[in-house]
Amino acid sequence: xxxxxxxxxxxxxxxxxxxxxxxxxxxxxxxxxxxxxxxxxxxxxxxxxxxxxxxxxxxxxxxxxxxxxxxxxxxxxxxxxxxxxxxxxxxxxxxxxxxxxxxxxxxxxxxxxxxxxxxxxxxxxxxxxxxxxxxxxxxxxxxxxxxxxxxxxxxxxxxxxxxxxxxxxxxxxxxxxxxxxxxxxxxxxxxxxxxxxxxxxxxxxxxxxxxxxxxxxxxxxxxxxxxxxxxxxxxxxxxxxxxxxxxxxxxxxxxxxxxxxxxxxxxxxxxxxxxxxxxxxxxxxxxxxxxxxxxxxxxxxxxxxxxxxxxxxxxxxxxxxxxxxxxxxxxxxxxxxxxxxxxxxxxxxxxxxxxxxxxxxxxxxxxxxxxxxxxxxxxxxxxxxxxxxxxx
Length: 392
Ligand code: PHB
Fold this sequence. Notes:
Helices cover 36% and strands 27% of the residues. With 392 residues, it is of the alpha+beta class. The protein folds into two domains: 5-72 and 97-179 and 270-348, FAD/NAD(P)-binding domain (3-Layer(bba) Sandwich), CATH 3.50.50.60; 183-269 and 352-387, D-Amino Acid Oxidase, subunit A, domain 2 (D-Amino Acid Oxidase, Chain A, domain 2, 2-Layer Sandwich). Helix 8 (299-320) runs antiparallel to helix 9 and helix 10 packs across helix 11.
């Protein structure tokens, strides 16, 4: 099998890239280890930055997102039992965020790609990437029938997430540097059949730990609370979950709207960056190159930003033969990645309870929350980062 750009992974990065290349007349083939059903059913993030929404619209995948996504003009930070609004819209020159689940983004992108003649091989598991320092790299994969196949291409885009094979194709000793931080807590996430408790997302600081109230639709709510990363879902009955969430977000009479919980899971929190994001003709994008704690709501948006840079660089190569933008890919993408790492770490450190925290640390956290909700300059910093930088 042959193509111009071989894309490993049909997540947000791979699918967006494939469509952007298609619009520039560049061929690609996607290989993806999971089934279409599994991808379209996996619950992940839910917040799209303004520029991610704009990109979806620009490539023709914005119709349902515009119709069904929820545009939010602000977020609430709750601490000392009281809510404080950050007006994202006014503090960021009219930019907003849109709440629309990642798997809905993926459904829209897969449908669009297939409708426009895209080639996606589901249940095709990449097992290795060869010849990345040659002119003709190859992605090896096994089909669902168990056959070994090869995808020969000009470039490989490694968009196969944190556990994919792409990153490991960059030699660890000579070339690659991994920057890693594991946080000593996780998030317990639920989906509940309930009415929204709030019009906007609530990020709560509490002695018992962080909590987040988000939404998916008028009938389905997404909520999280900080937990021990080694805790077990079985330890948490529905009643215990509601009690914990209510304890962390209550205070001034605010009451959560409850309902049957139909999904529970624990996610670890970590920060990771792999540098460089390119080696030879292999380009890493999205979670294959980095992950951020979900507190800043940046994961999917960073993936979109990476492939925006990469699509332009590939387009410049195929249009003019110049490799300048390709050579700049890693440096350009990493600048935004580290900005997002800093922001995600900052918001995480401001809102979570650290097990070794002293009284001093707690007072400092509250002072920082006072700062970002009372100083216009500090609130603007939160808002600008949360709605996201324009794509470069
Ligand atoms: C979500 O709705 O899943 C969500 C929202 C905001 C975050 C993280 C996750 O910061």
